[in-house]
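Fill-in record for Carboxymuconolactone decarboxylase-like domain-containing protein.
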Amino acid sequence: MELRFDLLTNDLGTKIAKRTYGINRLIEQSSLPKTTHELVSLRASQINGCGFCVDIHIKEAAAAGETPDRVGLVAAWRHSTVFSEAERAALALAEEGTRLADAHQGVSDETWALVRKHYDDDQTVALVALIAMINASNRFGVILHNQGGSYRPGMFNGMAD
């Protein structure tokens, strides 16, 4: 599968990519744990089938200190013992917030209550924004056929400048 269009070769595409990345940098500056950030991003990317984003978030999770076991079990988090209750709440929110079209009621009250139990207001805002932004990024990747495999941790660090 060949890349359909490289956003970074177009002035408007570059501006959009930089602003999208800039929002992600704001989320990273929140008190939401980096590992939670990466696990949530990885799970949404798996659901959406974005190989490029899966590649990014597997490698960024490892760079943040995640173990291969935990990274490998994200896809089956409900059937594993390696995630905390707070991480499980964040992963449930990621799934329900990503599968809006599949779940006519959207995010359940039960999931929302678990998120609010474990995350303060700023962390909750960061989680909701993260889920919205990773879903947008996944759509760029899937629509444009951006392939996974070549990402190096930190390679986009200067993009938001």
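KEY FINDING: The chain has one domain: 32-144.
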